[in-house]
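Type II toxin-antitoxin system RelE/ParE family toxin
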Amino acid sequence: MYLVFLENRAKKELKRFDKNIQEKILKNLHLLESNPFLGSKMHGEFQGYYRVKIPPLRIIYLLDIKNKIIKIRAVGFRGDIYK
């Protein structure tokens, strides 16, 4: 079981969504606790990161396998999250 840690940016972004979207995001974060490889690896500028797609949203995270920690870097809409 992995520990999910939300960075400050991700916390702020999560608070901006309405309750229904927040529930979808939190559900996926709980799934990540048991299966951190649920997301797909990213390439290019974001190499080393993973992403989970929840159309039209994305969760960007960094995986620390040694310490069993998932650091959520960003949560947001597809068009805005990569900026």
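thats it. The longest strand covers residues 69-77. The domain at 3-78 is CATH 3.30.2310.20 (YaeB-like fold). bye
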